[in-house]
Design a protein that fits this description.
- The chain is built from eleven helices and 14 strands.
- The protein is an alpha+beta fold and about 375 residues long.
- The strands form five sheets. The chain has a five-stranded antiparallel β-sheet with strand order 5-6-7-9-8, sandwiched between helices.
- Strand 8 and strand 9 form a beta hairpin.
- Helix 4 packs antiparallel against helix 6 and helix 4 crosses helix 9.
- InterPro entries: Kinase-like_dom_sf, Prot_kinase_dom, Ser/Thr_kinase_AS.
Length: about 375
């Protein structure tokens, strides 16, 4: 067995390094001196979390982090466990970005933003523990959405985005895969990994190299400064897909998609959906204007526009709330487990994991 951190070797059956407490891996998974991290992350996680938790499998593998489905063996409760793979945990910039997402989410309390149960580091794994979701918007678009369902989802995501914008945050990566659904079919905005905080020291809010090209705004693709209006564009791209079942722009390669965002005008959504109300077509096309100054300033301004436009208000009336989302924690239904708060207390999950690690080290 070999330490993933300091490379000391130990006898078979040893779980953790006696020098730095990092997880050990079987030398059999080493190939040409290189650790096959992709094949061992889940196995190491299982050793770290046992016996209190079991790892059911991988849910998602993003550009920075992986998300695993874990189950509490005592309560049979499922959770989503977002971790930095071990081969990325040694990069200070990646770790700082991951920890920054934890801090941002700990400050956000909204019924349509995914809360976190706990966050921290254990056995070289930087993690976020979150509620288990039932699916994402990407799959729903592929199956097809009815207009009423589209409007409900859009309204919920818009409310979450307005709250984030009012808090000084620009999400910068709004896309169907980052809109998730709980067991009650409510939409939740997820993945604030590259969000930009307006008053954050050292943050410039530039878009170069960030986001997903299919859903990114022109200014983001050009590497220019981005703000809430960039999120409006990305939400407009998602809304277009929901209304039509079609991508806004397609191409043989990412470069063609980028060029289309920069120079090509959108095909009117009514071309794909002849039953689309004209007021919705006007709305989505304004969200998709190339010049950010011609869009809505932020999600709050978009909410106010919907309420002030009779044709739109009639469509959204069943889902309408005051344009100004309440920011008091008391007005927000708490998650099944309390989210992380500013106070430096140890979360329930963190304490249980630390106890499990302690047992393994003294075994």
């Amino acid at each position: 067995m070999k330490c993933i951190s300091c490379n000391y070797e130990f006898g078979e059956g040893t779980l953790f390094c006696g020098v730095c407490s990092a997880p050990l891996v079987n030398l059999a998974v080493m190939e040409g001196g290189l650790l096959l991290i992709e094949d061992t992350n889940q196995a190491i996680l299982q050793r770290v979390l046992a016996p209190d938790y079991r790892v059911q499998g991988k849910l998602a593998d993003g550009g920075m982090a992986c998300v695993y489905h874990i189950v509490d063996n005592r309560t049979d409760e499922s959770m989503a466990f977002k971790v930095l793979p071990l081969d990325r945990a040694g990069d200070p910039e990646t770790v700082a970005q991951f920890e920054r997402e934890s801090r941002l989410l700990a400050e956000l309390f909204h019924p349509h933003i995914i809360p976190i149960y706990d966050a921290g580091e254990i056995a070289k794994f930087h993690y976020l523990a979150m509620p288990m979701m039932a699916g994402d918007l990407k799959k729903r678009i592929e199956k097809g959405l009815r207009l009423r369902e589209t409007l409900r989802i859009f309204h919920q995501v818009l409310g979450a985005l307005a709250y984030a914008h009012d808090s000084g945050l620009t999400h910068r990566d709004i896309k169907p895969a980052n809109i998730l659904f709980d067991e009650s079919d409510n939409a939740h905005l997820a993945d604030f990994g590259i969000a930009w905080l307006a008053d954050e020291a050292g943050a410039e809010g530039h878009g170069q190299g960030l986001g997903t090209p299919t859903y990114a705004s022109p200014e983001q693709l050009l590497g220019e400064k981005v703000g809430p209006a960039s999120d409006i564009y990305s939400l407009g791209v998602v809304f277009y897909e929901m209304l039509t079942g079609q991508r806004l722009f397609t191409g043989a390669n990412p470069k063609e998609v980028v060029l289309a965002h920069l120079h090509q005008e959108p095909t009117p959504p009514s071309h794909h959906n002849t039953n689309l109300p004209p007021s919705l077509e006007t709305l989505v096309l304004r969200m998709l204007t190339k010049n950010f100054e011609d869009r809505f300033l932020d999600a709050h301004a978009l909410q106010e526009h919907i309420q002030a436009t009779p044709e739109l208000y009639a469509l959204f009336e069943d889902f309408s709330k005051p344009a100004k989302e309440q920011r008091s924690d008391e007005d927000v239904p708490p998650p099944r487990r309390p989210p992380m708060v500013k106070a430096k207390r140890r979360g329930k999950l963190r304490g249980l994991i630390d106890m499990a690690l302690g047992r393994a080290l003294t075994a």
